[in-house]
Please model this.
Amino acid sequence: MMSHDFQPGAHLRDERTWYGHDGVYLGPHGGDDWVMQFGGGGLSEKARSRIDYVPLAEFQKSGRVTVVEHEGQDFEATLRRAAWLIENPPPMPYHLIGHNCEHIARWCAMGNFSSRQVEGLLGLNLGVGAFFTLVEQPGGAWRLVVGLVSLFLSLFMMWLSDRGARRFREHIEQNWPG
Model:
């Protein structure tokens, strides 16, 4: 898909090797197409990440950018939320599980605080934990330990995810004029 095919306000995803990177297409300006993103650098740069806008060419590291469809999305509202977040970023750092690029892009697009990537990871981890804990297998105790550790990690990740989403939601509720 060519950049001029994106509608301003579209939720974009760049499919990278192990994950997707999300942003909001802002449209053309000054000869470039622009995207609002959160944490576009590598893993070592995530702690210093901020919400900003970058040229589409910088956003699309893999070259496989797609539009994330949201039924009933209001593209004008998406652009207002994105512009507001650039000027009023949440006072918390990037967090892979609780406050990441997908959380930001989904809030801009639909006003909710979710990440399908995180939900998928938690579901996988819970499934592994349940399998090792509940399914009788040879190997006994170590499998039970692996299962219980996996379940505990899932619960901890859910708590972290909810904590980050809660802090983001509080920032929006206290400051968003819309």
Q: What stands out?
A: The longest strand covers residues 20-29. Residues 129 and 148 are 6 Å apart (CA to CA).
